[in-house]
Amino acid sequence: MKWLLMLMAAFAITASAADITGTWKGTAETAVGKLERTFVFKVDGAKLTGETTSNMFGKSTITDGKIDGDNLSFVITINVQGNDMKANYKGKVAGDEIKLTVEIEGTDQTVEYTVKRAS
Fold first, then answer.
1. What would the pLDDT profile of 38-57 be if each residue is shown by its tens digit?
2. In terms of Cα–Cα distance, which of 99, 101, 98, 100 is closest to 110?
3. pTM exceeding the 0.85 threshold for the entire prediction
4. 42 touches 59 (CB < 8 A)
5. What span, in angstroms and rounded, lies between the C-alpha atoms of 73 and 64?
6. CATH top-level class for 18-117?
């Protein structure tokens, strides 16, 4: 029994999510110019929450956030010319850097970010 508990504890440690809690910043080139975005992530187990602020779209709340190992995904809602649109993020953590790909629903636009830990 003791060995089983130790094995389960070791597995839980190796399967744990990356801790990206904190502030991250990045810039992306878009069709309408440079988009600067700050993310404030909170991780609770496999759940990812928080908020993000950009120079073009203001503040958004992170929803449907998940983190599994070094992979993460979440959704934000942005307002584009009076229309709410969902931006679906997927990314991979590598130390103090996250590479993100963003797909905007209802468009064929994809934006690539590399964000770095700010605090």
1. 999 999 999 999 999 999 88
2. 101
3. no
4. no
5. 8
6. mainly beta
Least confident of 1-10, 47-56, 93-102: 1-10
- Checking 93-100 for CB contacts under 8 A at 24+ apart, the result is 93/18, 93/20, 94/70, 98/20, 98/24, 98/26, 98/72, 100/26
| Backbone φ, ψ for residue 102 (5° rounding) | -120, 130
Helix (H) or strand (E) holding 79: strand 71-80
- Classify the C-alpha dihedral 62-66-29-99 as positive or negative: positive
Q: Are 89 and 66 in contact (CB under 8 A)?
A: no
Specify whether the CB–CB gap between 84 and 77 falls below 8 A: yes
